[in-house]
Design a protein that fits this description.
This protein is α+β, with helices and mostly antiparallel strands.
């Protein structure tokens, strides 16, 4: 049994170049490191996405909003403590349908292909596995 879409608490996170499913984040040994500004640009390049709050004074202040035909997605920002610092993932607060969420995510994956959906049980979703469950 899977979590109903309306109850999902999701983030987008960096991960391995290829996802072998089923996958959980705590068992993922290879995580690609993306520079924060590169990911921010990739998120803001998705059509109908705009910056709400800049990364001033820190990336943890950064917030974007994606507007879909059936709702919105708020996107925040976290970092990994790596050298150099890298993007650690982005929480998603959404009230849009699963197709809109998938379209937004695929827009980011055009620039950052090793970005996966992550839920509160640490499950990682590929576009195919998400689509099979929720579309």
């Amino acid at each position: 049994m899977h979590t109903p879409y309306e109850q999902l608490d999701l983030a987008i996170v960096p991960g391995p170049p290829q996802l072998v499913e089923p996958a959980v984040s705590f068992d993922t040994h290879e995580v690609l490191q993306y520079p924060p500004d590169f990911v921010a640009d990739a998120i803001l390049a998705v059509p109908t996405t705009r910056l709400i709050r800049s990364n001033d004074p820190t990336w943890y202040d950064w917030l974007a909003l994606h507007t879909a035909s059936d709702g919105t997605i708020k996107i925040d920002f976290t970092l990994f403590d790596t050298e150099p610092v890298s993007w650690g993932g982005s929480g998603l607060v959404f009230d849009c349908g699963p197709q809109s969420l998938l379209d937004f995510w695929l827009g980011i994956r055009g620039a950052c292909p090793a970005v996966w959906l992550h839920d509160t049980s640490c499950k990682l979703y590929s576009p195919d596995s998400f689509s099979e469950l929720y579309l």
